Amino acid sequence: MVFELLGGIARLFNSLFRELRFRFYDGPVFHRFLNHKYPYYSKLPRRLKLKFLRLVKDHYEYFDYIERDNLKLKRAMKAIIASAASQLVLFLPNTSLTFFERIIVYPDFYNSKITHKVHKGEVNPGLRTIVFSWHGIADGLNRPDDGLNLLLHEFAHALWLEHKIMGHEYQVISPKWAAEFENYAIQEMPKLQNDSEHFFRRYAFENMHEFFAVAVENFFERSEKFKAHQPELYRILVQIFKQDPTQFYASNSKQKSLFR
Q: What percent of the chain has pLDDT over 70?
């Protein structure tokens, strides 16, 4: 009885310590890394910023970040990568993206050991690894409204693969809405592929995986245009991610400070 009580007190103090650390150290540090540098975070209403920062901290600590070709990953760089994962799973179950364990980052485009081709990024479920080139990441960050974002693209691949591989053990994406997405894609991809004026770039029509990844890029980066061009597909993605970027973004950037 005494040991159980002491254990409970220890857990309480540990929880209190973690909360104080977040409020006075981790939270302000990640806020400084992201505010006015990561558009999704900057535009979130205040009530969601703290939730987002906690997720960023979790992903920052959870993944094993591996540097390649003499790249030096600074804390701010890892925070940016963790933010993209958090962006996708902000309203999804806590198990989302936990199938993957490590993130490899190259400084530039690289020769993949799997495909033996030059890549900007890739996902390897066999090794539970997601790979990025920082050059590709930077390109996406520098043009935040063109529907080309390497971080979102590869994390979307990872999320879709996790849904397919681990769906029998835990839920990442609602099976109902995943099926709706697949049905829409199967019916529409042949039509859209022949549309030279289509909203998506041609790469989207390679296969179901690429269609999903490109859709995710546009869902977050060109929300208003996506909603106007493909309203039914946009509605399905709103249900999948349980968020509508056109609705919950802050109307202006003048918000009360999160941390004092």
A: 88
What are the φ and ψ backbone dihedral angles of 220, each rounded to 5 degrees? -90, -30
Q: Are 141 and 76 in contact (CB under 8 A)?
A: no
Q: How far apart are CA 208 and CA 217, in angstroms?
A: 14
Strand partners, 66: 104
Average pLDDT of the segment spanning 230-237: 96
Q: Is the pTM of this model over 0.85?
A: yes
Reference 215, options 248, 178, 251, 250; nearest CA is 178
Which two structure tokens, joined as six digits, stand for 235? 């509605």
Domains of the chain: 1-145 (1.10.472.150), 174-247 (3.40.390.10)
What radius of gyration do the chain's Cα atoms show? 19
With a cut of 90, say whether residue 226 has pLDDT above it.
Answer: yes
Angle, CA 249 vertex, CA 55 and CA 23 arms, to 5°: 35
Total residues belonging to the chain: 260
* Collapsed DSSP state (helix, strand, coil) of residue 28: helix
